[in-house]
Design goal:
single chain; about 290 residues; three-stranded mixed sheet; five-stranded antiparallel sheet; elongated; about 35% helix
Length: about 290
C-alpha cells in the first residue's frame, strides 16, 4: 500500500526564499540611500559671470588749464606764466651748477642729475588767473588717476630669461617696440626659440592697456627677447608691455581688494609677480593714497 504524500518545506525552498527576501531588502535599502542622497545634495552653484571693472578717471595729474595757481603780475597774461622772482631763482640755480662744475666733475654730474630730475621752472614772466586750488585732473569722469598712471608692476630681478618669458606668456602679455622707421613691432609666444613677430604702421587702433619701463633691470631681457625674434631694438627704443583684458581685470580686482579703497582714493598701486604652483600670480605689495 502506497503511503500518502506529505507536504513539507525542503532545504531548497528555505534557501531560495531567504535569497529572494535578502535581494528585496538590499534593493529597498539602495533605494532609500539614493532617495536620501538626492534630497540632501547641495544645489549646483551658479556659474560666475566675468565682470569687467570699468573706470572713468578724471584726467592727468599735471592739472587743468582752469585750475592754475593765481600769479599776480603787472605783465600781460600768458599761458605758462610764473612770478618774476621764480625766473631769478632759476638763474641762481644755473649759476650754482656752474660753480660746482669748476670744483669737481664728479660732483657736477651728481648735481646735474638732481637738477634734471627735479621740477624746473621754464615759464615766462607774466600773470595768470585761477582759483588757487590744487589741480589733479581735467575732463569728464568720476575722478582719480587712470590705470596706466597709477599701476606699477615689478617682475623678479633674479629670474632667468626663459623664466621671464614664461611669466609674460602666462599672463598673455605681448611686447611691442617703436622702431626707428615709425613701425610698431609686436612679439608674442616668447618661450619659443624664435618668438612670433608682426608689424603695424600705426598704433591708433590699439585699445589694450600698455606699460613702459620706469626702471629696473628687466628691460635688458626685453631687448634679448626681441633679438631672439630677429628684431633690432636699440637701448633707447621705446618698449611696451600690452596687457590682455583678462589680466587687466585681475589687476583691477586685486587693487580694490587690497585695502577696499575706491579708485579716486588711490594714487599708486605696486604689483609683484610671484610663483603660484605651475604658474604665476600678481600680488599687491604697496599702495599710496591721496
Amino acid at each position: 500500500m502506497t503511503p500518502p504524500p506529505v507536504m513539507r518545506v525542503t532545504l531548497y525552498d528555505w534557501v531560495s526564499s531567504w535569497a529572494i527576501a535578502l535581494f528585496i531588502g538590499l534593493l529597498m535599502t539602495c533605494g532609500a540611500v539614493v532617495t536620501v542622497w538626492l534630497t540632501t545634495r547641495l544645489p549646483k552653484p551658479p556659474e560666475a559671470v566675468p565682470v569687467e571693472l570699468v573706470e572713468l578717471p578724471g584726467g592727468f595729474e599735471d592739472g587743468s588749464p582752469d585750475e592754475t595757481l593765481r600769479v599776480d603780475s603787472p605783465d600781460p597774461e600768458v599761458r605758462d606764466a610764473v612770478p618774476a622772482d621764480a625766473v631769478a631763482e632759476q638763474v641762481e640755480i644755473a649759476e650754482a651748477i656752474e660753480a660746482v662744475v669748476e670744483m669737481s666733475e664728479t660732483a657736477t654730474q651728481q648735481v646735474q642729475q638732481q637738477f634734471d630730475t627735479g621740477i624746473q621752472n621754464t615759464g615766462k614772466v607774466g600773470s595768470a588767473t585761477g582759483t588757487g586750488r590744487k589741480a589733479l585732473g581735467m575732463g569728464p569722469g568720476t575722478g582719480g588717476l587712470p590705470r596706466e598712471q597709477r599701476w606699477f608692476v615689478k617682475f623678479g630681478e633674479r629670474a632667468s630669461l626663459d623664466e621671464y618669458a614664461k611669466q609674460l606668456d602666462f599672463f598673455g602679455i605681448e611686447l611691442g617696440a617703436l622702431l626707428a622707421d615709425g613701425r610698431l613691432a609686436y612679439i608674442s609666444h616668447l618661450q619659443k626659440p624664435i618668438p612670433d613677430v608682426r608689424y603695424i604702421n600705426s598704433g591708433s587702433d590699439e585699445a589694450r592697456l600698455y606699460m613702459t619701463w620706469q626702471g629696473g633691470e628687466r628691460r635688458a631681457l626685453d631687448i634679448q627677447l626681441f633679438a631672439r625674434a630677429n628684431v633690432n631694438v636699440r637701448g633707447d627704443t621705446l618698449i611696451f608691455h600690452f596687457y590682455p583684458k583678462e589680466t587687466e581685470n585681475t589687476l583691477a580686482r586685486l587693487e580694490l581688494e587690497f585695502r577696499n579703497r575706491t579708485v579716486r582714493q588711490i594714487r599708486r598701486t605696486y604689483y609683484i609677480v610671484e610663483p603660484d604652483g605651475p604658474g604665476y600670480r600678481f600680488n599687491v605689495f604697496r599702495q599710496i593714497l591721496f
